[in-house]
Design a protein that fits this description.
Blueprint lengths: L14 H13 L6 H63 L25
Helix pairs in contact: 1-2
Length: 121
């Protein structure tokens, strides 16, 4: 049996955990009166709404940037496909009209009436 060492790392604090701690601290005040508690709830809801609004704005901006980049990439791919198609057509036409120098030509048909050919059907 081989001994195994386990190492645990603390995860870095994320925005979500910071927001959670802020909401917990607001709700954690036990000595506040009812009016103060309602105010605390209002503050917590406001903090959550502001956080969501910030994230939504950042997401909308990122989406707009991605749409612009996608449009540019799509146009580049379309242009490249058109160029490739045109180059292929030019190459095909060129090859269709070029004689092969490595292959012998077929001998010309001399014709004939076909009198000597008969079949037994």
């Amino acid at each position: 049996a081989t001994p195994v060492e386990l190492e645990f790392e603390d995860l870095p604090e994320t925005v979500f955990t910071a927001l959670t701690e802020k909401v917990k601290s607001i709700f954690g005040r036990k000595q506040a009166s009812d009016d103060a508690r309602l105010n605390d709830v209002h503050e917590a809801v406001t903090a959550v709404a502001e956080h969501v609004q910030e994230k939504l704005s950042a997401t909308e901006q990122r989406l707009a940037e991605m749409e612009t980049a996608f449009s540019a990439l799509k146009q580049a791919v379309t242009d490249r496909a058109d160029e490739t198609s045109q180059a292929f057509t030019r190459l095909k036409n060129s090859l269709d009209h070029t004689e092969s120098l490595t292959q012998q030509r077929r001998s010309k048909a001399t014709g004939g009436g076909g009198d000597g050919l008969m079949t037994n059907c």
